[in-house]
Design brief:
By secondary structure, the chain is α+β, with helices and mostly antiparallel strands. It contains 2 helices and 5 strands; from the N terminus they run E-H-H-E-E-E-E. The protein has a single domain, classed as RelE-like (YaeB-like fold). It starts with a strand and ends with a strand.
């Protein structure tokens, strides 16, 4: 899938091996692994069968967004957009659920 970012710091977190954006190395490592998985997926339906991702549609003020587990504390927040090039995953943030 094609990926875009709401924040430049998230793009840099994926691409720059020395950049941590203030997260510990474990969160950064899992984030980069998730991004590889997202890029290799055909669409969001590939995420649901993997129980370890805890991929879910969000409600309330996060209507239209999805979350994917990075660890017990942090979630990757995403949304999907249709563009001329096809469906795009937009990485919104890494959210602390605690």
């Amino acid at each position: 899938m094609e990926v875009d970012y709401d924040e430049e710091s998230l793009r840099r977190l994926e691409e720059d091996p020395k950049f941590t954006a203030g997260f510990d190395s474990g969160v950064v490592k899992v984030f980069r692994k998730r991004m590889q998985f997202i890029r290799s997926a055909r669409d969001e339906r590939d995420f649901f069968p993997m129980r370890s991702l805890n991929f879910e549609k969000l409600k309330g003020d996060r209507e239209g967004q999805y979350s994917m587990r990075l660890n017990l504390q942090f979630r990757l927040i995403l949304r999907f957009e249709k563009r001329e090039s096809g469906k795009v995953v937009v990485v919104i943030s890494i959210a602390d659920y605690h």
